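Problem: given the chain below (596 residues), write out its structure.
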Amino acid sequence: MLSDSTERDRTIARARLQFLTHAEPPAQIVPEGIRNSWQRSKYLGVGTDEVVVPYQPDYDRESRLVRAAAPVLDRLEQALAGSDASVIVTDRKGWVRDRRVGEKRLSTHLDRVHLAPGFNYAEQFVGTNGIGVALEERRPNVVLGTEHFNERLQGVSCAAAPIRNSVTGRVEGAMNLTCWNGPARMLMAALVQEAAGDIERVMYEFSSSHQRALLEAFQQVSHYGDRPVLCLGQDLVLANSAASARLTGDDHRLLHEAAAELGHAPRARTQVQLTGGETVLMRCRQVDSSAGAAGYLLELAFAELPSGGHRPRSGSRTRAEQDASRPWPLPGLAGTDPAWNAVSRTASRCARERTPLLLHGAAGTGKSALVGAAHALTGAASAPVVVDAEAAGGDLATALREAPAGAGRALVLRNVDAVAPEQGAAVAQALEAAVAQGTWIVGTLRQAHGVPEPLRRCFLEAAAVPALRHRLADLPALVDCLLRRVGADVECAPEVLPLLRRHDWPGNIRQLDAALREAAAGRRTYRIELRDLPPSLHSAGGRSLSAWEASERDTLVQALLAADGNKLLAAQRLGISRTTIYRKMRAYGITLPARG
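Solution.
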């Protein structure tokens, strides 16, 4: 008589075979997490009979993750000596960084299936396995024998759990326990979660040591003088007011990369160009702690403006200048770009003081959203009423007069430049009547010079809303903000942001929002990957395309993404030569990230 586990294995094996040979989803008897992973693996075209994975022999063997895992693995190695079990640690992308095995036979098998340091066991390469599923779904899981997508792995069972950074909450890697199939396999989950927690605690101790060292170094230097000072660690950024007033999050990244390139030079200097085009002279010193390198201490000197212009030194800036450079958060919006800060402050002040405001900026830059947020900041209970001059036509003045008015109300006249000259006087009278009742009025248009003369006198202040291409430093915050509107659990893979930065965004935030919503709706996993983005974002062409050209470009991008960037394979699938696909890529400005 078969044991329950043996009968279950056979049932799962039959369900897997039926799923692979038919188009239907996996049978309900298969656990939900395994079903989802099988479907992802099948979509990705993962092989079922051979383990083919990338290999990178050169990696940082002294990384914080590896050093934190070492004492935990040492202890487990002693406890598991002679047993049919192994413990494995990977980084957050699935690259195996350390492995300890209890017996030689299991070690030989793991080598044969490339579950060894330097190889990648992400789900996209191996299919359903403990490491891949834990990283993909960011939660502990167990994959038993026949639940593996690849037949070569079905002789073992594995349990894995994500290793998280206790400070940031980010997944740093995975802890995995693999053993031969047997009666004890269901007990693995508790052991692997305990081990992952031990590694997280060691990493936290490292972080605390690093943070103390960085704080001490920062206090020693920032105590004297008012020059910009910045301390950058893996999980910590310290900046005095002179530095924080002039640097963005993207600037921190650029400075950290430049500091890392300088290596261990005691007090090296280099020039760095910041995201806004400004150049800064950076003096760098590595900060060490008892747990190793903690980060970098940077002393900065900003270059003066060219052509005889002189920017005052940070210590001599007026309070007004300092206030203007600080972020000005508005509800539901994001960004710290100086131009965005300026228009946000102006809109907020005008809303508070009920000063008629004219906002100009390209379509999709967020003019209406800015008005709504500034109005909400006053405590108003109602949303602004929007009247579109293009849509209202000859009834525009009537529509404005009929709009709700009074204290606590806001009225937006969209596309002010569309007001016909003969309507100017009547529209101006309607706006003045609304102002007399305490209504805050705002006009929006694309170009500041397009306001008809009778209306110009209605707006006492004007401000420009910057285009998205002029505030790309805000892109990470904007993406996070827009994705929160889609769903709390949606995020972007790390390689997505660099691609978004390369786009010029002629449709501004509206176009970014539409692209993210499309990608989120069609994503295959919990996060947005490169393959989920609209094909147009993979093209950097500067000219307008016909409908036929856009269709051809999209087809090329989709074929390249399906082939993982392999031009020859994409060309074969499209029935064209590799020379043609290269020529078309150049013509359409198609740029795909290198595989790695």
